[in-house]
Structures are given as structure tokens and as C-alpha cells.
Design a protein that fits this description.
Blueprint: H1 46-62, E1 65-66, H2 72-76, H3 82-86, H4 104-107, H5 109-122, E2 126-128, H6 136-139, H7 148-170, E3 175-180, H8 203-220, E4 224-230, H9 233-250, E5 256-260, H10 275-282, E6 289-297, H11 298-311, E7 315-321, H12 335-347, E8 353-354, H13 362-372, E9 387-390, E10 394-397, E11 406-407, H14 416-423, H15 427-439, E12 444-447, H16 456-468, H17 471-474, E13 478-480
Parallel strand pairs: 1-8, 2-3, 3-4, 4-5, 5-6, 6-7, 7-8, 11-12, 12-13
Antiparallel strand pairs: 9-10
Length: 482
């Protein structure tokens, strides 16, 4: 089976998180949970890190920069069994650990380091830490959420050591990106079709675990953060918020790269946004680069990369899968074919950073390097200044915009009908009011729940959760009025 850090342990492509509210595994069983263990922290030389970041920025100004390929694909080639994942440290752990690739940083660091080294030798400029699932939300499936700080720190140190050793021997810079995956749950949508207002994880929970991860990655010596495989824009915003919070706290700032995942031919991320809407939602973070990865092969991903390359006033990255998976979840696209496809990206001036996702190997990276060696980097376009907003679809406002139609009927102080519906708890009918506003031409809907007889905060949260589950409403931006 093939697969990467962005796939399930069995090689299938990333799918929507589980709808289970009460997982089968007993969360209150102490034997099924790992306790955190103390670990030593080696101080990072901030002068050296700043120098590396400056070198990366200069490199991006000169040529296309190469990311690594799949971690999981390479791990699966070792065919580790349950004992192989556990090692001695987790020999008596009360849950299965097979498939938890991140735990191998602790139990088989030799495998992870060898994979990092293979990608560097193939031509990667940037390697990613083995931390795609190193958040409490994702590690809870294995009862190892207490290990999140250690998983991130040790993965960062391992990648940093490997990159530094390679750089010293090869005479060229090697950079480390701290990988922050999407987690196994979505904060924008309900996993329960019978309760669209329910959320299996909340924004503040995500911020807390991303903050733990980012802090440990920073202490471990990464040069940049990679918020990747974004299937839910709100989850990504939580990661951004956590990173910016830590930067303010630590007095150290790292470049951020954000990479979304277009899940199918609809051209949308799983939470529903189009490519441009996704960029409009992310651009406030001023990322070093924005891009797309996973779910699709290079052929299928191309139109969306092209769209992003047109609207983004920053660097663009792309690291698609090795084609689409076959019936067994395996990837059949040969390294040369992937390289040829991405070579055309370079010839068309679409990319600044390129690499591989599910199914790709060091050979894919080596051939990409050859195919793109003579291609110029994408020139960052001069994008017109506009007010750029988004729901599921973009709304761009400039001097040529005659007026913006704001739907005011979803406002308890401005509409007696809407107020009575909310007071009665008739959210279904209240959604019909919002739907009618959009159908009648509202480009933004104004939502206000400030009324003395209401629990305004709870009513706002409930209504907005329900709006997010209605694409015909959520396609326009929302103006919160309070």
C-alpha cells in the first residue's frame, strides 16, 4: 500500500472526519492513555535561524524551491507491524498504535531520519517534520494526546539535525518546515446529519492544541510553519491564530505557508470554499506562500493552481499526489509522469515551491528537480487593491463596484418576524429568512442577535453553525452585527 502523511494508514485518500460522537475506544481507561514524560530541550540559536530564513527568502527570489514528498508512503515500505510502531516504550499501551506514523519519531527515529535524508539527497530544499497528526485531536484516537509537545519537539529536532548534517556535507542550505495537519475533525461543519448545528470540535480547542504544537516546533528549530492539507478553512484559521499568538508571546516570528486541499472536480475544499474564496480567507495572515496539495494528481489540480497563481500576491506552492488512487488505494503514476506534469507547471510560470504528496517518493522529487531545473520561478503578480471577502465564494469590492447589497432581515432588532422566530427557537424558519435574502440578491447578510430576552451569544453561535451548513446561504460573507 502507498500513502503519505496526508492519507489514512491504509493508503486511502483523506476523507471527511468520522461522524462518531462517542468513539468506541474507552476514553476513560487509564491503560489506554499515555502519560506525558519529561524531555530535555536544547536552546535554538536564533541568529542561525534568522540567517536560514533570509537564505530561503533569497532562494525564492531566484528559482523554484523544492519541497519533499510523502512521508507515509516511505514509512509503509517498511511494512511495520503493531510491535514495530510500539517499540519498547509503548509495549504495554492499551490501544493499537499501528498507523500512527508520528509515533515513529519516538520509537523508530532511524526510519524517519533516513526518509528525511533520502529527500534531501533527491534535491529537496525543504523537508517537513513528521507531525502531520501531532495534535491532541488526532492523537486522541490512539490515546497519545499527552505526547503532543514531545512529538512535535522531537520531530523538529530530528529534522533539524538531519538537515544540518546534510547541509554541512553537501554545501547547500536545507530548511525545515513544521507540519501542521488539518486534524481528524472539522470545526466548520457537523458530522451528524441529524444535527447540523453540532460541532465535534470547537475553534478554541483547536487553537489550544495547535498552540502546543507550534510552541514545540519553534523550540525544536523549524525555519517555517506549513499549515497543510486544509480541508476546513476554520481549522486553518485556528492554526494561524495559534501561530500568531505564539509569535507575540515568544518574540520570534516564522514564515507561514498555507496549503489547501481541493477535494474533487467541484474545485472546492471540503468545507465548501472555492480556491479564490479560500485565498481571501487566508490572505490576512500574510503567508510566505499559499498553495494546494493532496486529494488530486497534478493533472486534476492544475486549473486550481493556475487560479491561485493569478489571484495570490505571494509565492505559490503545489505538491499534488502521484495521480489518483486506484481501487486498492495505491498510486500508479510513475515518477517521470509526475515530473513531466509538474514540469509543465514550471514552463507555464505557475509555481514557486513544488513537491509531492500521497504516493510520491524521493525518485519523484529527483525527476521533478530535473524537469524544472531550467524553469523560471513564477513572478508574483501586481494584484489590484480590493476589499476581498468570502463566504464559500469570493466577494471582491473596489471602485468599480456600484453598491454592495447587504441583507438586513436576519437582525432581531431590525426585523420583528426574525426576532420572533429566534425567540421561539424556530431556527429552520429563521434560515429561510437568510436564504430568501441571498436569493433576492444580498451579497452579504447582516446577523444580529442583540435582544434583551435572548441568550444572544448562544443564539448567534447556533444560527451561524446552521448557516455554515447551508451552502445556498453560506456562499456569501456574513456581517456580524452586535
Amino acid at each position: 500500500m502507498t500513502g503519505c502523511r496526508h492519507c489514512s494508514p491504509h493508503g486511502q485518500q483523506l476523507a471527511a472526519p468520522s461522524a462518531d460522537r462517542q468513539p468506541d475506544r474507552p476514553r476513560d481507561d487509564p491503560a489506554a492513555r499515555v502519560a506525558a514524560a519529561p524531555f530535555a530541550v536544547t536552546p535554538v540559536d536564533e541568529t542561525e535561524r534568522r540567517t536560514r530564513i533570509e537564505r530561503l527568502t533569497r532562494l525564492l527570489d531566484k528559482r523554484i524551491v523544492f519541497l519533499d514528498g510523502a512521508m507515509g508512503t516511505m514509512i509503509q515500505q517498511h511494512r511495520l507491524d503493531e510491535r514495530g510502531f510500539r517499540g519498547e516504550r509503548f509495549r504495554s499501551h492499551g490501544r493499537d498504535l499501528k498507523g500512527n506514523n508520528d509515533i515513529l519519531t519516538l520509537t523508530r527515529p532511524d526510519i524517519v531520519a533516513a526518509i528525511h535524508r533520502a529527500y534531501l539527497e533527491a534535491g529537496s530544499d525543504i523537508i517537513e517534520t513528521n507531525t502531520f497528526n501531532s495534535t491532541a485531536v488526532s492523537q486522541a484516537d490512539y490515546g497519545t494526546e499527552a505526547l503532543v509537545p514531545e512529538l512535535n519537539y522531537r520531530a523538529a529536532r530530528l529534522a533539524r539535525q538531519t538537515a544540518d548534517e546534510f547541509a554541512a556535507g553537501a554545501g547547500r542550505a536545507a530548511f525545515v518546515a513544521g507540519a501542521l495537519g488539518p486534524t481528524s475533525r472539522m470545526s466548520s461543519l457537523s458530522p451528524d446529519v441529524n444535527d447540523p448545528g453540532y460541532r465535534s470540535v470547537m475553534f478554541d480547542e483547536l487553537v489550544a492544541t495547535y498552540l502546543d504544537a507550534v510552541r514545540a516546533l519553534l523550540m525544536g528549530g523549524v525555519d517555517l510553519l506549513l499549515i497543510e492539507t486544509v480541508i476546513d478553512t476554520l481549522n486553518a484559521k485556528a492554526a494561524i491564530y495559534a501561530a500568531q499568538t505564539l509569535f507575540d508571546e515568544a518574540g520570534v516570528r516564522l514564515p507561514i505557508v498555507i496549503s489547501g486541499t481541493i477535494t474533487d472536480a467541484s474545485g472546492r475544499v471540503l468545507s465548501g470554499q472555492t480556491t479564490e474564496a479560500f485565498w481571501n480567507s487566508m490572505r490576512h495572515a500574510e503567508p510566505l506562500a499559499v498553495g494546494l496539495n493532496c486529494a488530486l494528481g497534478g493533472r486534476q489540480l492544475r486549473p486550481y493552481v493556475q487560479e491561485l497563481a493569478t489571484v495570490a500576491d505571494t509565492y505559490v506552492c503545489a505538491y499534488p499526489n502521484a495521480g489518483l488512487p486506484n481501487a486498492f488505494g495505491e498510486y500508479d503514476e510513475a515518477p517521470q509522469e509526475t515530473a513531466d506534469i509538474l514540469g509543465e507547471y514550471g514552463e507555464s510560470g505557475l509555481i514557486n515551491i513544488v513537491g509531492g504528496c500521497c504516493g510520491t517518493t524521493p525518485e519523484h522529487i529527483r525527476l521533478m528537480h530535473e524537469a524544472l531545473a531550467k524553469c523560471a520561478r513564477r513572478a508574483i503578480p501586481a494584484v489590484p487593491v480590493k476589499c476581498r471577502l468570502s463566504g464559500l465564494e469570493p466577494l471582491n469590492i473596489d471602485e468599480q463596484t456600484l453598491f454592495v447589497n447587504v441583507g438586513e432581515r436576519t437582525n432581531v432588532t431590525g426585523s420583528a418576524k426574525f426576532r420572533k422566530l429566534i425567540e421561539a427557537g424556530d431556527y429552520s424558519a429563521a434560515l429561510d429568512v437568510a436564504r430568501q435574502q441571498v436569493a433576492s440578491g444580498a451579497q452579504i447578510i447582516d446577523v444580529n442577535m442583540d435582544e434583551g430576552m435572548l441568550d444572544s451569544e448562544a443564539a448567534m453561535a447556533r444560527f451561524m453553525h446552521l448557516v455554515a451548513s447551508e451552502p445556498d446561504i453560506a456562499r456569501v460573507p456574513v456581517m456580524l452585527d452586535s
